[in-house]
Design brief:
single chain, 37% helix
Length: 78
């Protein structure tokens, strides 16, 4: 029995949403944009899932945290 040992192909690298659309600034008041980078429990999605580069991931994290402090976004959803 000669089974071929195929390795699963890695998923292609996602491109950063902000780099592809040439967005330089992220506004904390734009809640619709930030909800795109949050999961259903209002947690910030990691960059390996969202595809953001490290620069824009830091910017989106900072904007989400500011929006939560200003009560524009919720901290958790139960």
């Amino acid at each position: 029995m000669n089974y071929s040992k195929q390795q699963p192909q890695p998923a292609p690298k996602k491109s950063c949403f902000f780099c592809t659309n040439k967005i330089n600034a992220i506004d904390y008041k734009d809640t619709q944009l930030m909800r795109r980078f949050m999961n259903s429990q209002a947690k910030i999605v990691p960059p390996r899932r969202s595809g953001n580069c490290s620069k824009h991931q830091r910017m989106i994290s900072r904007a989400i945290k500011r929006a939560r402090a200003m009560a524009l976004l919720s901290y958790t959803i139960k």
